[in-house]
Amino acid sequence: MKYSKAEARKRRHFRVRSKVSGTKTKPRLNVFKSNSFFYAQIIDDVKGVTLVSASSIKLGLKNGCNIEAAKAVAKDLAKKAKTKKIDEVVFDRGGYIFHGKVKAFAEAVREEGIKF
Prior knowledge:
The chain is built from 4 helices and 4 strands, in the order αβββααβα. It has helices spanning 5-17, 56-59, 67-83, 101-111, and strands at 28-33, 38-44, 49-55, 90-92. Strands 3-2-1-4 form a 4-stranded mixed beta sheet. Strand 2 and strand 3 (49-55) form a beta hairpin. Helix 3 packs parallel to helix 4 (101-111).
């Protein structure tokens, strides 16, 4: 049985989510990318609450889903996380392959001082 690209990503993400969960002390950093924009949020899965979120829409970037946009979203998210005293997270790549935009995002978050 052949799956579409989106269905295959959702299946991979479901498989990863069965193993990755965020807590209050170490929340989950989730990534989502559409054709137009890049989104990220830090989630406490115990309470089911989003603690911090950032996106290329909120930043008003002209080209919202490229590597530079992913880095800008990462810096914004890390700055917001620091104000909430979040310095360590579990990274959830959202079923995407760890290269390109996702890798650039992860490296930019690490450079800002968030550990995972």
